[in-house]
Structures are given as C-alpha cells and as structure tokens.
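Fold this complex.
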Amino acid sequence: MALLRREEWQGFVRDVDWTYSYVDDEAVYPEWMSGTGKVPREAWAAWEESYKISYPEYVAVQREKEASAYAVKAALQRSTAFDHLDEGWKSATKMHFGGVALVEYAAVLAELKMARFGLNGAWRNMATFGQLDEMRHAQITTFFGHEFIGKDAQYDWTQKTFHTNDWVPISLRNLFDGMMNSANVVDIAIELPLTFETGFTNLQFVALAADALAAGDVNFANMISSVQTDEARHSQQGGPTLEILVEHDPVRAQWVIDKSFWGSARAFAALTGPAMDYYTPLEHRKQSYREFMEEWIIDQFIRTIEDYGLKKPWFWDEFMRGLDVWHHGLHMGLWYWRPTLWWRPKAGVSRDEREWLAEKYPNWEQVYGDKWDVLIDNVNADNMEATLPETLPWLCSTCHLPCCNATQSRDGTWRVRDWRLDYDGRAYHFCTNGCRQIFWNDRDNVNHETLIDRFLAGQIQPMDVGGILGYMGMTPDTMGDDPDYTAWTRDYVGRPAEGLATAVQS
Amino acid sequence: MTAGLPVEDRAPELVPLNAIFATDFVQILVPVTTADTMREVAAAVARHVEGKRVRALPYPKVVIHNGARLPDGMTVAEAGIKPLDHVTVEYDIPEGS
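Structure:
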C-alpha cells in the first residue's frame, strides 16, 4: 500500500480530540491546571499552530541538529580555542550556563503541563515536541558547560546553581516558578512561549551567537544556535493561545503579558545587561544593551501586542527609563558583592570603556561615575577591604534583585528611592513601582522569601558574611572576584584621592 | 522581663533597617538597636558606604525617616523607627557650601 502524502493525513492527526463519555471534561482538564477562565471551553477548538510538523519530521530534523552540534563540539575539543578566550566572555558563558541549564529543565515541566492540560489536541501535540526540545536544551547546556570544569571550577555551577540558595538563582527561581511551574497552561503559553521566548530569548540567542563568534567562542555559538532553532518553533504556542484569550478575556491577557514582560526585563537587566555593556571586550561590542533592547526586544514586542489589540503595559515609561539605569546599578551590585557570584565580573570602567558608556548612556557619569571613582581610588590605594561587602544589599520582594534603581528628581539629582508596601502586618520594599504593583496584584501567590527575609528569620547561621556565603553554596575555589583589577584602574593611578574609607577611619 | 515596659525603657532590641546612604546606588540591610541614637544610626549606615562607594565629605550626617530629619541625640525607640523601616542618611551640608 502506498503511503499517504503528508497533507492527506496531517490535518486529521495533528489535533486528535474526542468527547469524553466516562468522565467529565472538568475532571480531565481541571480549571487550576487548564485555566480556561472566562473563555468558553469550545472556543479552544479554533487553536491552530502556524508551523506544523509531524513526529517523523521532528525526529529527523532534531537528529541532524544534535549530530551537527556535537560534531562541532568534538572537533573543537581538540583545539586550544577556550584557553584564548577573554575572561569577560568566559564569565558571560558561566553566567549563562548556570543561569540557564536548569531553567531549561523547568521549561520541560511547563511544556509537559501544556502537553497534558492544553485545551486543544494540536496544542498538546506542539507541547509534546516542546518538552522534547527543552529536554535537549537542558542536556546540551549542561553537557557543554560540564566540559570546562577541569579547566575552571566555576563551570561546576552549570549544574550546581539552581540547587543552591545563592541570591541569583533565588531570583530566577522566583521568576520561573511563577512563569512555568505554578501557572495554569493558558498563562504558561502566554508567559513562557509568547513573552519570554518569542519576546526575549529567541532573539537574544541570535545576538548571543553573534557575540560568541565575535569573541572567538565557536563552540558556544554552535550550541546556542542549535538551541535557538527549537525556540523559533515551540515558541509559537503563545500566539494561538493569546488570540483566543484576547477575544474572550482581554483584561487577563493584558495582565499576564504585562507581568511576564516586566519579570523577564528585570532578569535580562541583571544578566544580559552587564554581559553586553561591561564584560564583553570593548572591541567586540556591536551595540549597547539599550540599543539591543530597543532594536530586538521592544519594537517587536510592541508590534506583537498591537497586532493582538493589546496596549503597552501600564509600566511602560518606568521600564523605558530603566534602560538607562537598571543594568548599570545591577552591574555595580554584582561587582561589589562579587564573592557571591560563580563568575568573575569585570568592572569594565577603564577610561576608554567609560567614554563608550557615556556615549551610549549620557547620564552614566553623573549617576555611576562618582561611585566607580571611589572604588577605583580604593583599589589604587590598595584598600581592597573597602571594596568588599559587609552586609547584604536590600533585595526586592518581587524580583529578588537588589533595590538599586536611581531615578531623577525635578532638580536633576539622582537618588535611589524606597518603594514600600505595608501588607499583612509587615513592611515590604521594592526596587521599582512596577515590582510593587505586581506584588500587590499577586500578593496571595507570593511564596518566595528573599535572602533578607531568610537572614532576618535566622535561617542563615552564623549571621555574618561567612555564614551568608556558606548558605549560598559558595566555596573559596569558585567564589567570584574581578579577573584583572589593573585593567580598569591603571588609567587613574597617581591622581589625588580624598575621602576614602581609610582616611575616614584614621 | 522588660517586655511590658514602654519601648524606651526596655532592654535594647534589634531593629533591622532598609537604609540608603546619600548618593549611593543601592539600599542595604543595616541592623541597629532601639537604644541607638540617630548619630549612631548614621554611623552604622555610613560604615558600609562612606569612603567606599560615596566619597566622604567633612559634614555632619542626618537621619531622615518618613520625610522628617531626626535630632542626633534621639534614639531609635524615641523616633518610633520600627524593624524593616526605611531610613536615609544624608550629609547635612550648609547652604552655600
């Protein structure tokens, strides 16, 4: 018997569904998992993915991708390319491996939830491919990072990060648990494939692959490109879900997008921002983080939400202003609290680098230059103690990142302001108005304790810097430090320096 | 043993604060006690920042809580500063300097 052509059978099998007779539909697709809300159950029958694929095709394509990615890796393993990479780039990859490997695994769980509780057969089918994709991403990211442990113990955090209580994974767990693990499948499809993947990572991975090539890291470019091709396919689960939700419940659609865009933008500011504007060697920078966000993320996001008849999020002005502030403050925080990191953060504030920063961010010198100058003068005075932390930064009760976002007053000065909320008998502090608003709307779903909460509750013992580092899983062999103090301080050697900590204490 | 007394008469109690020093870039955790004066609170906050990230200036410091400048000799208990409250510590720079 001749095989049917693809177009003769795919329309029939891609969305197999049937009416249940032994059980209620609600028993199979309970609201708390499937989350149809105000959308009538039958409306989901219209769900249709734009790019269709069959299982044999999927397997054939993925097999080729895997073979190719691992072949390139095997070939490069014999070269000395890794040994010649700049530490700034290596640290960007350490941050990526640790910050991403197990998020990919969390995404397996999210895709599996959609594969089981999605409200249309085609959606469940797509999610089945999606979970296979995410399993591949968790594996390839873990495996590629693992290779370097012998050369640099910090790569051990590829697998270790999410098993620790370091403040960075606490922040990321908070974001991704909300986006992937605790949400119902309708919200997952909008938060993960649509906002985070289509909006952020899909395009960022294209840029990251280009950055890797510029830095001479062909192996990383190879890995990230391989991952990105999957993102482009499975991220399309968001569109059809949003289309149906917008028609029946536009308020919920807007809220879910707004919240996940904000959370994604905060995480990007912490990780992608410093990597692009500080860790990447000056000669390899193609654009600033702000330019990248404007060109790759914002334009596309606005087009997408307008196509679906939605509005810009309520926080838009605050978010746009934050593009000049958030990641610079977070970079300084990451650097100052560098013993809490599993990478080596470059300060990146030599004279040439500062000229570049001031050109890209006209307020940079006014807001950050004075603080870096004091740090530089302390390094040059060999007063390293003054450059190391003795307490915790205050961590935001929504994004769990340090409260370090200066805003400008009417008189032109820049100050970090307190965004406070009193709720249920206690005070909470936030890094921004956006984080405060999201906490308030989601207050009954907030379960994560910030590191500050844990510290004050006595969960971290002894209650000192050593105790905190131990609680975070930090060990002396992997603890972060600046890779080259001279690189960014030598331009300023010999200049007069007053008002340093040593002078104050003497 | 002192729990029933007014807060200013009790043994000093820990008051963790959310604090920011002048033009610093980040809020920090600073533990003080109910018996600390504003002078001591200002010093406790400044210790983490002054001369480390913000250049030290030769001026006295003032604690601001809920928008009010608090007198140097006032204690945390007298000022009604509670655990997890926010305080700002600023240089008290004379006008025209």
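Residues 47 and 240 of chain A are 6 Å apart (CA to CA).
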